[in-house]
Design a protein that fits this description.
With 247 residues, the chain is α/β, with parallel strands linked by helices. Strand 8 and strand 9 form a beta hairpin. The chain is globular and about 55 Å long. The chain has eight helices and 14 strands. Helix content is 26%, strand content 22%. The longest helix has 16 residues. The two termini are 25 Å apart. It folds into two domains: 153 residues, Rossmann fold; 82 residues, SIR2/SIRT2 'Small Domain' (2-Layer Sandwich). The structure holds nicotinamide-adenine-dinucleotide and zinc ion. The site of zinc ion has 7 residues, from loops.
Length: 247
């Protein structure tokens, strides 16, 4: 691992493919709290304990209040220079660029990213808790009590379209395929504590072709720091714009 103070740009050649994984840190400069800010607590509850199927079963109102607050925070925020830099890289690289985010906010889309997967779900979508076959709905509702939450046509409750702890992330088939064929993997603003996302950097090093070059950007070393070929310490909004040069 190299701790880089990059003076020159990182070149993306004509046969390179870039896979990007982002976490809560990329939205920090937009004013959205990371999970570690506030000691992992929300209104006195451990964040992990409101983001589980058990919490939904025991106290769905608390769960809806938590995600309603996060919807309000996201509506009030704007994409920052790091989201914009990734959208610009996609414009330059076309289908050689792929974005996977662990974030449930919509700041990447609002910056212009399109070729992307929200592996942990999306804040502004809701679905039937019984998966009765009704469609996932766009939903920016803010619910303070359960009687405000709409019911599904099957009669079941509507839940946030979020991947809770213990649930299977979305888009894993596509993600695995994109990691297998990337030559460069960039991770931005994630502590490397939540799996499977924390393994992606290892998969990129062990893929069938030659190992991908792996980069991390964030103000502190992630837990899986040893798997990165280059670590660029600093805020995403300051370090990412202009870091890469498409040859
Ligand atoms: P995290 O809070 O664990 O880590 C945030 C990271 O961002 C830290 O490594 C920090 O150094 C970095 N960071 C802070 N400011 C930055 C900046 N300006 N630029 C770049 N990096 C910056 O968040 P995470 O790693 O994204 O968490 C992983 C996943 O765990 C989350 O996406 C989420 O899906 C899941 N999780 C979910 C909940 C939930 O409420 N559903 C709760 C906890 C974790
Ligand atoms: Zn239903």
């Amino acid at each position: 691992m190299m701790l880089t103070n990059i003076e020159s740009k990182i070149k993306i050649g004509p046969s390179d493919r870039l896979f990007v994984l982002t976490g809560a840190g990329i939205s920090a400069e937009s004013g959205l709290k990371t999970f570690r800010d506030g000691g992992g607590l929300w209104a006195g509850h451990r964040v992990e304990s409101v983001a589980t199927p058990e919490a939904w079963k025991n106290d769905p109102e608390l769960v809806w209040r938590f995600y309603s607050q996060r919807r309000k925070d996201a509506v009030a925020s704007r994409p920052n220079a790091a989201h914009q830099a990734l959208a610009e890289l996609e414009r330059q690289l076309g289908e050689r660029f792929f974005l996977c985010t662990q974030n449930v906010d919509d700041l990447h889309e609002r910056a212009g990213s399109t070729n992307m997967v929200h592996m942990h779900g999306e804040l502004f979508k809701s679905r039937c808790e019984d998966d009765c076959g009704s469609a996932v709905q766009y939903d920016e509702g803010s619910y303070e009590s359960l009687d405000q939450v709409p019911k599904c046509r099957c009669g079941a409750r509507i839940r946030p379209h979020i991947v809770w702890f213990g649930e299977i992330p979305f888009g894993m088939h596509r993600i695995e395929k994109e990691i297998e064929r990337c030559t460069m993997l960039l991770v931005v603003g994630t502590s490397g504590a939540v799996y499977p996302a924390a393994s992606f950097v290892h998969w990129a090093r062990r893929r069938a072709g030659s190992p991908a070059r792996t980069f991390y950007i964030g103000p502190e070393e992630p837990l899986n720091v040893g798997a990165f070929t280059e670590v660029i310490l600093g805020k995403a909004g300051e370090r990412l714009p202009g870091l890469f040069e498409v040859a």
